[in-house]
Each structure stands twice: as structure tokens, then as C-alpha cells.
Amino acid sequence: MALDRSEGLAETARALAAGEVTSRALVERTLARIEASQESLNAFRIVRAEAALAEADAADRQLASPGARRPLLGVPVAVKDDMDVAGEPTAFGCCGEFPPVAEDGEAVRRLRAAGAVIIGKTNTCEFGQWPFTEGPAFGATRNPWSTEHTPGGSSGGSAAAVAAGLVPAALGSDGAGSVRIPAAWTHLVGIKPQRGRVSTWPRGESFQGITVNGTLARTVADAALLLDAASGNHAQDPHQPPHLDMSGAVGRDPGRLRIALSLKPPFTAVPARLLPEVRTRVVELAERLAALGHFVEEADPPYGQIGLTFVPRATAGIAERVGEAPFPALLDRRTRDAARLGRLLGGAPLRAARRAESALHRRIGSFFTSYDVVLAPTTAAPPPRIGALLELSGFATDRAMIAACPYAWPWNVLGWPGVNVPAGFTPDGLPVGAQLLGPANSEPLLVQVAAQLEAELRWAEKWPSPPVTAHSAAA
């Protein structure tokens, strides 16, 4: 048996455990797909061909011997290029030759412990700042649904790789929607978990705690399975939420829920408007949830001026990264400008922003005494064209980002979980998404609702057409 690109993470793991396919065959096939698609999609910064084949051979030896099976033994997966993989550089979207790191980051270590083969590291924009995946370090990563458009960012390489069927699932990171936005724009499930659920070690906090690691997959079950495999903490992690069984939540009846449909953008410094072609798709999801028996009504969380707490944390995080960069002169001018602002805000404003989080938890948490889940657009617009934001000034970039993506970032300030689900397509055939949002440690409930929608909408059956990697099918 040779699995095709439509087989997901769970099915691939099952076929390997049953002896229906070898890990080497899967990895060889994956490498051929990546090579065939790299010119058109450019999803990967690093492809670990030799190392991945060696890991596959080791997995096959374990699969051939009796004993307990690790959940992802022999399955090829990808990780974003902000995550340390031993023996590989971590350039995080930046120009220059970076030295290889000595050790896996904690999330990668846990994937390996689950038996996964790390096939490569996916492209991301510089320090993950923007909702597009382009830059002079690697060019432009393109959307499998329309190669004239971005897959989003900053986990755009991971999203493109999964959407095109190069890998069954991948890790990304989310600091202002960077898992959920590319998931929305490539027709994927993207889980942004509770802060600390997936370790960001060797950083105890990433970008002052607003950035977390999450998963991208075509189905809720696959996104949950990868999340279970990657979850857990380094002993020195400052945030260590309780263990949760994400896979066990898939298919479990959530009961009749109170769902708030929130269409109003949170506080933004410049105008943002939900475009009608996105609004229509999100409202249709709300209607589907109501038809499933949930109580749905329009209501907006009491965000207040939450944006004032986001900017100091985001820019101070950029300043930290720029301070560590080996080639600061090669950085985008917008990165350097953001770092200067971050250094200005890194004292009292940053401390005030961090202190404000507990008050925000209380105020917005009170909303969840009336509602169980929030349904909101993931973005206000469909994916922009390649190059549309690349050469803008810093201020123009901020305006364009806020106009397209005003909905995702508040949950990064709060550190709470959110799940993007595919919401359908615009009349032009571009994917858009909606996010299910909940309070602390609500991932199982969000996964239950997402799986309930998936059972109705069967979104995983839709693929980019024509398939980007069709010419590699014989590989």
C-alpha cells in the first residue's frame, strides 16, 4: 500500500503500525512532493532529506519489533522555522547564514518522543511579524488554492505544506493569529492552545508571553493528535497548564451551548471593516451551529482598549529578537523600527501591559458566565496577493494588517485557546475561516464544537485544484 496525499496524520500512523506501509516509503514520497512543489509553493526553508531518511529507517526497525507503539512512530511532519531542531539553523525568516543549534526545542523533542520524523522546517516571515510569508531570505511562499495569493503568516510555510498535502500536519506558532490566520486562508484547522500547553522552550516565554506553539492539519482529529504529541513542559517553563486529552474530545457531544457570534472588530487604532464575502461565510457557520441545537446570538466580548496592552509586549519581543540577531543590518527596516519602539516601551509600559492581563482575564472572563464559546471571523478579508504588503512602510503595513486581520490578536494577550475552522470560500474561490474562542483550558470544548462542524461540512474532502503536486504522484 502506498498512501496518497489525502491520508491524514491519524490514518498514516495507523497504516504504519499495521505494516501497510514503511516509514522510508512515506518519507521518500514526502521528499519527492516537497521537491516537486518547492518552485511553485516554496513552503520549506530547510528540507532534512538525509536526516529524515535515517530517522525513517530507525522508525521502521522499531515498527518491525514487538512492543508498545509510539503514537506518531514513523510519520513525517514539519515544524516552523522558529523552532529549534538539533543540527539545523533557526533563522526565523531572517537573512544570513545561521549556525546549527545543538539541541531540539522542547516541542520538537516531544514530537520525536512520539516517534515523528521531522521532515523539515517551514518558511515564516521575519520574526513572525506579519500575516504574509515573504522576504528576501527565501522569496515568497504561495497559497496552494491560488499561487498568486499568500497563504498568510506567519506560519504560512506550515499551512501551505499541509494544504497541498506535502505533510499530513505541521507545527506553527501564533503571536497575533499566526496559526489561525494561515489556517483560515488555506482551508485548514488551526489550533492556538492555552499559553504553555506546548512549550516554547528554550524560551520560557516567546514575545513576552503572547506567542504560543500550535498545530495545523486538515481535520480536527489530526490537529488534536499533533497537539497531544507536542504538548507538555520543560521543567523551567513559567506556564504549565494542566494536562488535557485533545484527541479524546474529538467526537464527544458538547451538549447544547450558548454561542456568542462576535462580528465587531476589537479595539484597533485604525479602521477595520469585515468584508461582506467573509461575513456571509461566518454567519452561515453560526446558522449551522444553531441548526445543530446550540443557542447562538450576536454579542461581543468586553475587549475595551485591549490593544494598548498588546503593542508593548509585541514590540518588546521584537526588540529582544533583534538584540540577539547575528546580522542586524540585514533585517527589514520595519523590524528595526519595531525594535526601536519596543526598547522605548520595554520599561514601565511593558510592566503595565503585563499587569493588565489579570484585569482583562476578569473582565473578559465574566463574558463566559453568559456564553460558553465565541464564534468570530478569523480575518476580515480573504488572503491578499503576493507582494501586496512586502514593500510597504511600517505604518502602511500596520494599517493593512489591521484592516485584514483585526480579530485574532486579543486571545494572544489573554493566553487563551482558539481554533480556526474552515468557513468556505469567497466567490473568487479563496478560503476564509472562523475562529472558536474560549476561556482558559477550554481546548477540549472548542475541539468538540469544531469536530461537530466538520462532521456536517466535511471540509477535508475539498482540495486545491488542480493539485499542485499532481506531477509527483508516481514518486
From TrEMBL:
Enzyme Commission number, as recorded: 3.5.1.4
A Pfam family: Amidase
Record bears the keyword DNA damage: no
GO terms of molecular function: amidase activity
SUPFAM superfamilies xref list: Amidase signature (AS) enzymes
Record's keyword annotation contains Signal: no
UniProt keyword annotations, A-Z: Hydrolase
InterPro entries cross-referenced by the UniProt entry: Amidase, Amidase_CS, Amidase_dom, AS_sf
Domain of life the protein comes from: Bacteria
Residues spanning the signal sequence: none
Limits of the Amidase domain: 26-446
Family: Belongs to the amidase family.
Name of protein: Amidase
Taxonomic source organism: Streptomyces iakyrus
